[in-house]
Design brief:
Length: 545
Amino acid sequence: MAAPTVDPAAPNPDPAPPDPPSPAGRNRLSLLVVNVLAAAGGGVLLYLSFPPRTTWWLALPAFALLGIVLTGRRLRPAFGYGFLFAMGFMVPMLHWVSSLVQTLPWIALSVFESLFIAATAVLIALVSRLPAAPVWMAAVWIIGEAVRGRIPFGGMPWGRIGLGQPDGPLLPVAAIGGVPLLSFVTVVAGLALGELVRRLVQRKPLRAAAVPALIGVVAMLTGPLAALVPATGPTGRTVTIAAVQGNVPRLGLDFNAQRRAVLDNHVKVTEKLAADVAAGLTPKPDLVIWPENSSDIDPLQNADAAAQLDRAAAAVGVPILVGSVLRNPDGKTTTNSALVWAPGQGMIERNDKRRIQPFGEYMPWRDFFRMFSPYVDRAGFFVPGTGTGAVDMAGVRVGVAICWEVAFDDAVAESVDAGAQVLAVPSNNATFGFTEMTFQQMAISRVRSVEHDRTSIIATTSGVSAIIQPDGTVTASTKQFTPDVLVDRTVLRDTTTLASRLRTGPEWALVAIGVLAIGFAVVGRRRQRQAPQVQQARSSGDQHG
């Protein structure tokens, strides 16, 4: 009987089952999934640690997770995990951007800022094998914040870790070394927690857990210890300051089209304040703070706007700090200005915004970005102004940080150097609706108050306006999109904190420490790579010898 012929091209009717994945392969996949979830989840926890929530302590497990994921990691995976961490943080943190423009620019900005953090994560992984690693890793994080807060287009300091700690026990550190030192000790505490957990999980001897435990305890003690360091210098007289929130006619980008209504609203609320003073219901203020953009009509070129400001100043009888948009002689560019408008005198002093917001107040590379979004042409043609960042109002030296400026260390420090006894933060958050942006900005002002030992007065068009004491406590605030007035007695201060005197010194010291750590880590890696080659060369020499 002939054997059956087999067509070699025919499919195998009974193919062998594929080999099951090896236990090692399954473990690697499981570990990858865990690391991905830990990195992204850590970023989400970091976002949840920021205001308006008071869960400041979530920053610690956030950095604990990041530290566990990055410790000993090769550089390429470290970039990926750092990017996931950053996106978990930045995407929800910057969600308010989407209320100003389309979704694509919001996501693009989140991705761009996340690339900075991902690059920082690579350097953190590089130094993670050094002794007392949490200290060096946190210093490297400050390098990332320093770079991200300066480039490109003047930087994006939003989301610095210290700016999210106004409710935490570490806040007094801001008076010693500003936001950079506050960021540093917060990150150190979180990374030390992660290193402690990592060593305990690996069942290393208890003595191996002593170093990260000690680092974490020292980091957390810096807050109470910093609170014991007093500001130096005199306090002055007590004055009464009013913040007016006039509200806007409706939400959205097009509110500027109704700028006369915005001006009228603030005049109306100020006249109501004057009536309450006359009736004995409210203490008479020594000066009044209006928000940014409270008079988008240039009162220096429009008599009707000037008349409205005269009317408000005459009613209340004291100078008003008015947020206005002034057209420059070139007929195209504008300045975002705070004008001191005195009764019977008009404008007697002016402060122009020095740090203007890219993609909002002006558009860098306008022709290029127009290819991606039609909202590019809605960006203004503002130019930065010059000046000291402080004005005189009724014998009070008022530091002025207009909205975006309050996020920049140097802008606020320059106002204090110029003699500011109190800080005014006129702001316009109407375009951001009911998002968290206004609360994030108020948190920044709280940190600034502690950093420079000054009362801060936030006046916004639509909320939240607030009075913040030098210890960061909010003693009065308004609701969003509600006309209101805050009146509070404020002690003027000429005191000086260590942070005010040292300026950028602590930041550059931390950056230098981080750079040195990176240098030591690079040298260590080179020696590790060269060690087998040296040993092989010695062995070869012994054989030939």
